[in-house]
Amino acid sequence: MRALHTAATGMMAQELNVQVISNNIANVRTTGYKRQRVHFQDLLYEHHRRAGSATSEQNTMVPAGISIGSGVKTVSTGRVMTQGNMTPTEKQYDVAIRGEGFFRIRMPDGRTAYSRDGSFDLDAQGQLVTRDGYQVEPGITIPNNATSVSINAQGTVEATMPGQTAPQQLGQLQLARFVNKVGLESLGDNLFIETAGSGPAIDGVGGGEGFGTLQQNYLEEGNVQAVTELSSLIAAQRAYEMNSKIISAADQMMQSTTQIIR
């Protein structure tokens, strides 16, 4: 029976939906994480009788046809790029973006990746790097004798040196934004890379046109809402159960048909 295949597509779709929801819940405390949402579309239809087809030589027409669908398919697991809550950390190299934009991160293979995770630190050479040791673009080096470091809303990095009253400017953190940021490809490790779908990166600085501002000593939390995810999980479980009931009902109908034939 066709219902078996149709219900099976529904069960597979909800299984993937649960996987996405579980990943969101697992990352509820991940810095800068953007939750995913599954989007579905119905599959092809078999038209037994099309609406508007003629029913007589006097041009009378069928007001409503007969179309049988073949199930559901998953078309995307897009990111929801809303702002996460800002959390104070009291660490001078932690930086959060309030608004649009991504930090530019230089990967070991030379590619540029993008991240909302501003939990930075220093490497052995005093360069500003991510927790995995990847360089934050452009390369900014903090002198080892700096007494304090400040990063303003525009991303200007300044350090106070011993014996000096005026801070010394060390560099400017660069930001990037995209026409379609949902089209970015996830690499893991809180990193994204641009794709043909996202379009090329538009470079800028904090507070520039279309860009958010930076906030030192803060980090952006993931935008996962636990209550919302749990509600979605319950709905996905119920949808999975309903599709399994259809398979059971179709199986019972086939058994009845087989018994009649016997």
UniProtKB/TrEMBL annotation:
> Where is this chain's protein located in or outside the cell?
Bacterial flagellum basal body
Where does this protein chiefly localize?
Answer: other
Where the record annotates domain Flagellar hook protein FlgE/F/G-like D1, the positions are 96-159
For this protein, the record's SUPFAM superfamilies field holds: Flagellar hook protein flgE
| Residue intervals of the Flagellar basal body rod protein N-terminal domain | 4-34
What are the residue boundaries of the Flagellar basal-body/hook protein C-terminal domain, all occurrences included? 215-260
Among the Pfam families in the record, one is Flg_bbr_C
Key words, A-Z: Bacterial flagellum, Cell projection, Cilium, Flagellum
Extent of the signal sequence: none
Source superkingdom: Bacteria
**What PROSITE patterns does the database record attribute to this sequence?**
FLAGELLA_BB_ROD (PS00588)
Q: Which family does it belong to?
A: Belongs to the flagella basal body rod proteins family.
Instruction: Describe the protein's quaternary organization and the partners it interacts with.
Output: The basal body constitutes a major portion of the flagellar organelle and consists of four rings (L,P,S, and M) mounted on a central rod. The rod consists of about 26 subunits of FlgG in the distal portion, and FlgB, FlgC and FlgF are thought to build up the proximal portion of the rod with about 6 subunits each.
Identification of the protein by name: Flagellar basal-body rod protein FlgG
Q: Which organism is it from?
A: Bosea rubneri
Classification from the root reads:
Bacteria, Pseudomonadati, Pseudomonadota, Alphaproteobacteria, Hyphomicrobiales
- The gene is flgG
